[in-house]
Amino acid sequence: MTSNAKSRWADSAEDAALDAKLKREKEEKKRLKAEKARKAAEAERLAQQARAAKNSNGAENDGEGDDSTRPAKRRKFTPDAEDRTTTADGDGGAPLDVKEGAAKLMRFPVGHWGKCRSVENYDKLNDIEEGTYGWVSRAKEASSGKVVALKRLKIEPSDRNGLPVTGLREIQILRDCNHRNIVNLEEVVVGDDTSKIENIFLVLEFVEHDLKSILEDMPEPFLLSEVKTLLRQLTAGVAYLHDNWILHRDLKTSNLLLNNRGQLKIADFGMARYVGDPAPKLTQLVVTLWYRSPELLLGARAYGKAVDIWSVGCIFGELLTREPLLQGTNEVDQVTKIFELCGVPTQETWPSFRSLPNARSLRFPKTPNATGSMIRTKFTTLTNAGCKLLNDLLSLNPDSRPSAKEMLEHKYFREDPKPKKEGMFPTFPSKAGQEKRRRHEPNAPVRGQNAADLGDVDFSGIFQGRDKEEKGGGFSLRLV
Q1: How many domains is the chain partitioned into structurally?
Q2: What 3-state class would DSSP assign to 430?
Q3: Residue 363 gets which letter from DSSP?
Q4: Is 250 one of the annotated active-site residues of the chain?
Q5: Where is this region: Disordered (predicted)?
Q6: Whole-structure pTM value
Q7: How does pLDDT run across 30-79, given as a tens digit for each residue?
């Protein structure tokens, strides 16, 4: 080995080039860091000048200065974002001009705690109605003259838990709902003596009529086009509730309001509640008797949106005839009337009905002859599509009933006569300024009551004589 041989550990030309590259990159990083620090210092200096100028302007309180001598006021969003520029307004306010595409802050309304107003801000005009869960009066706001409905919540004397859960649910649901077919909650007010829990009032929008009163006073029933308008609005409101996981559980004509512009609104949410999937444990005794579905009457402990759909079907029939469709005197009589109109359940039409507590001991006719639905016979003016819709709504099997959204797409609303426009709806004289009216209908169930046990009931004779009838399209003929 010679002494002048090159060591294999000596730097090659490639190593020298790499070292030079790394050195240049290191110097560039230092330069960028220094430039960034310089820009930050410059931005801070400009901000201090802007603050000083603003303070001096505020102290002098003089707007007639030479604007050209004022330092430019700029706000840097980031130290190195040179392409984002702002310019101040003429009076020293917040920066205005931001480069298009820059992110903007989004603002959301937030809840807050505040003291309720006093009921003394309203002057009571007259009583309207007394329901299961409260008294409703007509009142006028003293400052604006606006007429409202004032609902005072009922407090059971034996209830030591304070405000009833039904009242809390009604307030919560009404505050959450925002739909044109649901009555609007304006505010909650309290009496002067806030130590008394019963001094809580719901201020609701005032609606002139309820469908129950209109139907009782009408000399002739609604036109089919008007029935479609009312039914479609009711269905739209129910669809909104169900989409938001709310069951009303007391739909009936006395809880449906109608204003003088033909707009229907669902009211009285005393029995309503939120549900989920899976459904929580629900109260078994719900819905006013005449509008209660067969699964509830047969003791179902789990139920869903179909209980509201059954009530919609009962209301549909009531709009056509001006009287409640199924007027039972008690639970057994109500089930009898349902089976007389809709037929008896079978393993084919309702496979699970025998598992319900009150259905195990029921006795039905041994032969299926003449035990079907009588809806076609009862409603002779309905078209085939209307009869099909009513049959589906009043299906004994809750799983066979359509959803509210499916109802809105039904053929019945698209065929002639078309639904009447709300603006063309007839008006009716309001009774809200008169004396309190008495209702000729069962009251809504009271929370805490137990559902009735039907016991051993024999339904085998309810269809006697029906086999002598021949049913046609829209009429019935009895053979003599």
Answers
A1: 1
A2: coil
A3: B
A4: yes
A5: 1-96, 416-453
A6: 0.70
A7: 999 899 899 999 989 998 888 888 777 665 555 454 555 555 656 655 55
In order of 8, 20, 275, the CA distances from 12 in angstroms are 9, 13, 78
Instruction: Please report, for residues 72, 237, 474, the alpha-carbon distance to residue 386 in angstroms, rounded to integers and kept in the order given.
Output: 74, 20, 12
Give residue 163's identity as a one-letter amino acid code. L
Q: Is residue 466 part of a domain?
A: yes
290 vs 59: which has the higher pLDDT: 290
Q: What are the start-end ranges of the H helices in 202-323?
A: 211-217, 224-243, 294-297, 306-321
Q: What residue type is assigned to position 151 of the chain?
A: K
Q: Does 288 map to a domain?
A: yes
CATH number, domain of 354, equals 1.10.510.10
Residues in the chain: 480
Domain of 241, in residue numbers: 209-475
Indicate whether 138 belongs to any domain: no
> Is position 163 within any domain?
no
Hey, is 257 helix, strand or coil? strand
Residue 167 near residue 133, CB atoms below 8 Å: yes
Sign of CA dihedral 60, 63, 65, 66: positive
Residue among 123, 243, 250, 308 flagged as catalytic: 250
Q: Give the CA distances from residue 150 to residues 116, 185, 253, 267, in Å, rounded to whole numbers and listed in that order.
A: 15, 10, 20, 13
> How far apart are alpha carbons 263 and 433 in whole angstroms?
20
Cβ neighbourhood burial of 259 (10 Å; 0-12, 13-18, 19+): middle
User: Residue 126 in 3-state DSSP?
Assistant: strand
Sign of the CA dihedral with 149 first, then 313, 325, and 336 last: negative
